[in-house]
Design a protein that fits this description.
Layout (H helix, E strand, L loop, with lengths): L3 H15 L4 E5 L11 H7 L5 E7 L2 E6 L3 E5 L4 E6 L7 E7 L4 E6 L5 E5 L3 H6 L11 H9 L5 H6 L9 H11 L12 H20 L9 E3 L2 E2 L24 E5 L2 E5 L11
Antiparallel strand pairs: 1-6, 2-3, 3-4, 4-8, 5-7, 6-7, 9-10, 11-12
Helix pairs in contact: 1-7, 4-7, 6-7
Length: 272
């Protein structure tokens, strides 16, 4: 599933072509792609209204219209990009603009969804801090970890606490911090929590600068893949040698997720 850097990259590449434009036609090629509204709803409420902004909230692409927002979640295999001609085989939705440009939503597995809301309130209620925002401080992060007794990987994947992190960047951040993913959140020393905080931000910013990570099928525009896979230190590296401790990287299950670890990551738990 695309994580924060991949969604942000998509936003970065479509934003300039959308702002100040209007949606004149929207077609749900895949009938279930519109989650909480119909094609008729869209036309009656927002057709021809101006696009004010395009941004990311959590793992949603937010197209801000004059009185509503169109929120798009890529889920597992969704792709949102402009096409000059023709439609890909797995097109789920088509958005036509008054600029004569066509934005398509391609989705092989058909899990991606469009939502129409009055504002961001519904999304904000279910989602936590943005890890790259000024409001997400080291002290806030420490409070989140100390307020519950949970496995650190499970907590970092919880979008109601901190948004945008998925399997790739949680594993990378924990490795960079030398923290084992089975560590208990409120047992991690403050110094290590602050290191993890910095690691999360570093890993995410680096991935954004590389236009995201392509493991299987992520693309941020027509045919272009992310460049961050070569920068990964542990994710997907089962059987490789850890560049820090020179031991073999293993793959285990943590929180029902495939998880990559090495011996240089310490477990912090209640056990003595």
């Amino acid at each position: 599933m695309p994580e924060l850097p991949e969604v942000q990259t998509v936003v970065n590449f479509i934003k300039d072509k959308l702002i100040e434009k209007s949606i004149i036609k929207i077609v749900p090629v895949w009938p279930k792609v519109f989650d909480n509204f119909s094609e008729h709803d869209f036309y009656s409420k927002v057709k021809n209204t101006k696009i004010i902004d395009v941004k990311r909230r959590a793992k949603f692409i937010i197209i801000e219209l004059e009185n509503f927002i169109l929120a798009i979640h890529l889920r597992m295999t969704g792709k949102l990009y402009f096409v000059s001609k023709g439609l890909p085989k797995h097109t789920s939705a088509i958005i036509k603009l008054n600029s004569n440009k066509t934005l398509i939503f391609e989705d092989v597995r058909k899990f991606g969804r469009f939502y129409l809301y009055n504002n961001l309130e519904t999304i904000n209620k279910r989602h936590g801090y943005e890890p790259l925002s000024e409001s997400f401080t080291k002290e806030i992060f420490l409070e989140i970890l100390n307020s519950c007794k949970r496995g650190i990987k499970s907590l970092l994947l919880d979008q109601s606490k901190v948004v945008g992190l998925g399997n790739i960047y949680v594993d990378e951040s924990l490795w960079l911090s030398r923290i084992h993913p089975k560590s208990i959140s409120n047992k991690i020393p403050q110094k290590k929590v602050f290191i993890l905080y910095n690691s999360i931000r570093h890993v995410l910013l680096k991935a954004i600068s590389n236009n995201g990570t392509t493991i299987i099928n992520y693309t941020y525009t027509e045919g272009k893949t992310g460049n961050n896979a070569d920068e990964l230190n542990i994710y997907g590296k089962k059987g490789f040698t850890c560049r820090v401790c020179n031991t073999t990287i293993k793959k285990i299950k943590v929180s029902n997720r495939g998880t990559y670890i090495c011996k240089c990551q310490k477990i912090y738990s209640a056990k003595k």
